[in-house]
Amino acid sequence: MDRTAFFKACVKAIRTRNQAVKSSNLTSKDTSNILGRNRSKVTTEFGLKASEVKQNVSKLKEFLLKHRKDYINAVSHVSSGVTAMSDRERDQIDQDAQTFIRTCSTAIQSLKDGVVSQKNSEQVTEHRCNVLEVLEKYLKAACKLYSEQRAIRVKRVVDKKRISRLQCDNKKQSGRTMEMNDNPITSNPTHDGINDVEHEFTPEELQTFEQENKRIFDEMNSLANEVRNIEGRVVEIAKLQEVFSEKVLEQTKQIDHVYETTVKTTENVKDGNENIREAIKNNASFRVWILFFLVMCSFSLLFLDWYS
């Protein structure tokens, strides 16, 4: 299941929040020293590395989807005699995909260690943890896509081997039948043409046929067991996919809640800045009135002293 649209929506929400915080800082330049924060630097090293990981996972998904048809079409040569991708190329894709997944997982773990080791504010730490969780979900979606393709490939390879064995057994059986038909049945010259000699299988031939039937039966049971195992794995993958979908929906709700909380926090910061400005203005006017009162009292005392 493709999660690119979900990740873009998360990035858009984070960008909207950053723009709201930036506009709040522009409207409250005179009180920026009171808040004690510098928001001029929007792009951080963490953001660049997270964006790089997201781009790498997107490239992996695009690569898997681009070669999906040729990768899982492992039985095309049975019908047409030509395949667009060899088994060696499929093995190389498996190796490259596994290396790519390990690299992205290591990068995410490195970012996690950096978030834990760095001493940032609680809001920044929570935001980065949410970003890393979204990246993990995105990487798990790519891993699920690769696992499904590999499971389909293995199932089709097993089906191909089963068909090849059946074709080989049919050829052997038809060869024995033709050989038996080519051998003429000798008749007894003392009898006339009406009474033919009855043909019976020898004990050696019966034993050979019994062993052959037992071998074919064992092979069919083995193939049936392999197919059942693959079907069980596919069912397990489907269950895991369902669990992942539920977790992604829960994460979407959590991200929406975090976004709403961030917007409310931004509005509260704006209201706080306005209240601070009003308090500063009120304090200034109050000081002016006190100074005016003291001056008037001084003049009144001087006037009374002069009058007396």
Automatic annotation (TrEMBL):
Q: Which residues form the SNARE-complex protein Syntaxin-18 N-terminal domain?
A: 1-93
The UniProt entry lists membrane topology as:
Single-pass type IV membrane protein; Single-pass membrane protein
> What is this protein's function per UniProt?
Syntaxin that may be involved in targeting and fusion of Golgi-derived retrograde transport vesicles with the ER.
Task: Provide the species name.
Answer: Paramuricea clavata
Instruction: Note the CDD domains from the entry.
Output: SNARE_syntaxin18 (cd15850)
Task: Give the family from UniProt.
Answer: Belongs to the syntaxin family.
Please indicate which superkingdom the organism of origin belongs to: Eukaryota
Which subcellular locations apply to this protein?
A: Endomembrane system; Endoplasmic reticulum membrane
Q: Which keywords does the record carry?
A: Coiled coil, Endoplasmic reticulum, ER-Golgi transport, Membrane, Protein transport, Transmembrane, Transmembrane helix, Transport
Name of the protein in question:
Syntaxin-18
Q: Which Gene3D superfamilies match?
A: 1.20.5.110
- Do the record's keywords include Secreted? no
Gene Ontology BP term (one)? retrograde vesicle-mediated transport, Golgi to endoplasmic reticulum
Which Gene Ontology cellular-component terms appear in the entry?
A: endoplasmic reticulum membrane; SNARE complex
